Amino acid sequence: MTHPVDGLSVTRAGPLALLQDAGRFGVRRLGVTQGGPADLHGWAWANHLVGNAWGTPVLEVTLGGLELVAERDLVVAVAGADLSATLDGEALAVWRSFSMKAGQRLAFATPVNGLRAYLAVAGGFVARPVLGSVACVVREGLGGHDGQGHRLAEGDCLKVTPRRASSGSEAPREERYDYGGAAELALLPGAQVGEFSGDSLFQAFNAPWQVDDRADRMGVRLTGPRLQCRMPSMISEGIGLGAVQVPPDGQPIALLNDRQTIGGYPRLGALTPLACSRLAQCLPGQAVRLRAVSAEQALAAYRHLRTAFA
């Protein structure tokens, strides 16, 4: 059995770097949310490029500003956003795996394309599971590298399970998303969609929306036409990933991985997991559109993703 060893030391922490596995499930009855990668697609590719199994913990780096030093020779991969990554000062391509020698310095600067990058290590990062997962949820103080929901700080050291792996693997070109353009977000209508006025439903799926600066791992507010709902009030009910709530101001809020477990605003429906991933890479001010899909279409897209990494 291989024991965890020191892998990467933090010399500059940046605004938000969190350890994320696939998420924490089966505990929402306790009021505990799922956590996990905001961009499932980028997270899955980072793991795949170093030969890790689905669910292996990966470091989610938001906005950059992170600097790490290798404590030993490692094979790592970066997928998702381009955060101006460099290795010992040399520019580093995203969506590929590469070798890090002991003492080398990996740095993420500022966003060029997208918001969140994913750093995987061959063999995986190691941390103590809390309620069955190492997914870091800062608000709940659960998971992460220390088990207490803390973001990475200067001086922290990430443990790894070392494993031999080859470097140089690259994701296919069609999987390397350009996050800068307008995003089309697949939404599964449901819940209270029939309570919205006809004009509101037309606007919801035909007008452009903009990502507001009020956006984090809990949810993303969209600004655009005001949506009108005929429901005066409702009893709070369970909230799933991607639920699109519409509060009284008529501006939708798409709820993501660190959302609350119940909510009392009417919902248009829910974004698909891949639509949540795309939205999580959008910067404030970016344009998005909603596209209604069927349950069969949503399930087929998710199965395609999972089959690719089976």
Automatic annotation (TrEMBL):
An example molecular function term from Gene Ontology annotations: ATP binding
* Swiss-Prot/TrEMBL keywords: ATP-binding, Hydrolase, Nucleotide-binding
Fetch the InterPro entries from UniProt.
Answer: CT_A_B (IPR003778), Cyclophilin-like_dom_sf (IPR029000), PxpC (IPR052708)
Q: Which ranges carry the Carboxyltransferase domain?
A: 29-309
Which superkingdom does the taxonomy of this entry point to? Answer: Bacteria
Which PANTHER family does UniProt cross-reference here? 5-OXOPROLINASE SUBUNIT C, CARBOXYLTRANSFERASE DOMAIN-CONTAINING PROTEIN
NCBIfam families, per the entry:
urea_amlyse_rel
Name the chain's protein.
Answer: KipI antagonist
Gene for this protein?
Answer: kipA
